[in-house]
Amino acid sequence: MKVCGIIAEYDPFHEGHLHQLRRARELTQADYMVCVLGSAFSQRGDAMMFSTQDRARMALANGFDLVLGMPYSFSCAQANRFAVGGVGILHQLGVVTHQSFGCETTDLKALSDTARMLHAPDAVFKHALKQALEDGHSFAKAQGLAMAASLPQVDEALLSAPNFILGVSYLRAHLELGSTITPAVVLRQGDYHSRDTGGFASASAVRAMLQKNPEADLNGICPQKSQQVIRQAVIHPPGALDKALLARLRDMSPETLRQVPEISEGLEDRIKKALREVTSRADLINQVKTRRYPAARISRALTQALIGTQPRESLPSYARLLGFSNRAKPLLAAITQHGFPLVDRPAQERRVDMRLDMKAEELWYLGSGQPMKTAWQQEMIRL
Amino acid sequence: MKVCGIIAEYDPFHEGHLHQLRRARELTQADYMVCVLGSAFSQRGDAMMFSTQDRARMALANGFDLVLGMPYSFSCAQANRFAVGGVGILHQLGVVTHQSFGCETTDLKALSDTARMLHAPDAVFKHALKQALEDGHSFAKAQGLAMAASLPQVDEALLSAPNFILGVSYLRAHLELGSTITPAVVLRQGDYHSRDTGGFASASAVRAMLQKNPEADLNGICPQKSQQVIRQAVIHPPGALDKALLARLRDMSPETLRQVPEISEGLEDRIKKALREVTSRADLINQVKTRRYPAARISRALTQALIGTQPRESLPSYARLLGFSNRAKPLLAAITQHGFPLVDRPAQERRVDMRLDMKAEELWYLGSGQPMKTAWQQEMIRL
């Protein structure tokens, strides 16, 4: 049985995603396609526009056989932790043979050389990393500079390409978990961040379109089956929780703020100071970010401050079972044999480690104008 | 020197308020009119539509000589505490000779008989109060029933009239403080709560008009000098802090909620339960209120949960000096001699007891879409 996993956010699921899904199936000849889906708050720290449920619905409708939810504390986290969250679930399912991801290159050697270097850094890398951090670069930037120093055989442009970096994080997670999952790289088509360059529109471009005009024409941008979900969706407007966040930060002492995973080294004081000046989350991020602490890190830190922190596990201890297709029954049976917990009824679950995940969901629903209990009432989707 | 005080909210200052101010000056022949103004959250628990600063500006522009801010923990409180907050400041100023208030009657004997009864309740009253509380009535309603039993000489309709009740609270505060301030009662004209009955429009009617149409014609409803302030005001829209409140309540345990002054006897559990179902503060109040716990009490309790609680002083220890007219200088000099603290620069003040008051102001500004620091940057108004 060949099973291919894809780790994604699908906010919303667009034509580029459909292209990758189809190519992954072709490349791997998989019997089943499994999606590990980011939670209600994105890897970059923002609230998703579409609910976890609606994003799972889009993934299933467009061809996945099984959709699993990644716990919030991994999905709203820096790239390495996000990758460990996704790969950790795929690995622990015990049945996944392949993982597919989009990348700026299909040169698997470049990807795995880089992953091995990060897994067991050499002296050249360590020295260059230390130097770059001392020069005040962000961790991501410093890591890129150190990789360039240590990996002359890899195209330097690739080392700072966002999907190359994420792909490397996945392969590094494979190494760390001793996983035998085979990577299947799909070449990204054009520039996902612009509609004008002939490539697919990015999810952020689609969200911007929908924010401007909820009735915007999505033909050629999102598959019909995504459009059906999008047209009926209750969305979380950007900024919906801004006042809740600012009021929450108002109540947190610098000492409490410093306990947030991505906050350290005086960032707490910068946040407290800027808080008095701003009227929105976006303003606050703009005021606080530096070369060393880029916007995405601040954004995640703010979401973590709003939702709370807990002792962080190094590997997901469960995944949410968001939905599956009828034909996935043998797959589910095989997964069940391996014993990794799939949670299908959060309200009846006694797992303490789910509380933070469900709190993130509750606050997502609050922001979308729906009652918090909606987070607990999700029906599993069956197609 | 005759000095007359009026305790009010002025959200906004309308023609009815101007009428009362003028009648008070006539009745008392006061040299100076002093206003004690409610804070950013009303006695009924809602955020004011207009800032403390703008309401002070309206009071000064319409004829007050001095406007003082009542600390939040007294102004967002049940009628008796609100009255002690206002009268406590007037009394401690040391120069106030009269207090004027509007009432459904000018029968001072009815008012003071009732106040004396509440100050030193007789056996008939005590028994009837206990009975009515046991029957599940709200405290206000039970007190009304007990007064009717104990005070057959007072018109029963008066005993439940809102301004009669507030007037009695003022006179009771006079008794409790041993104050020699003379009451000056102004008869209320018509029904303040309706524009159609020929009386003055109430402040809530004016707010509803402005909410529906910010450009609504206010001639004959608000004095020109109020209109000038209203037209330039940044308002706090109703509901602006709803998500901040609901997220805050989400984080509070029933035990923490029970520490809120107006929450007791299982109300905390009702709030936690309803919280999952609702999408707004108004919904939550509707779901939680009972005959025993009326909407205003729930509303205040929710605001107290959002802003926080502290050990509550029984008498205001300061007032904010919001503004004064040029001609009030001799009045201010006389007040200074008596030594009651008037705070004119909150940002430079080291009083710990002001923190909650200023937090309420900060959250008001957050809701109005302005930075929180605006709360600290208020210039004193001089006319």
How many beta-strand segments of chain A?
Answer: 8
Q: Please give the most extensive interface between any two protein chains, plus how many residues each contributes.
A: A-B, 26 and 26 residues
**What is the second-level CATH architecture of the largest domain in chain A?**
3-Layer(aba) Sandwich
Secondary-structure class of chain A:
alpha/beta
Counted by DSSP, the helix tally of chain A is 18
The main β sheet of chain A shows up as: 8 strands, mixed
Oligomer: homodimer
Give the DSSP E fraction of chain A (strand runs of 2 or more residues).
5-15%
How would you sum up the global shape of chain A?
globular
Q: Please, how many domains of chain A?
A: 3
What is the percent of helical residues of chain A?
40-55%
CATH class of the largest domain in chain A: Alpha Beta
Mean pLDDT level of chain A? 93
Key structural traits:
alpha/beta; Rossmann fold; eight-stranded mixed beta sheet; homodimer; 10% strand; 383 residues
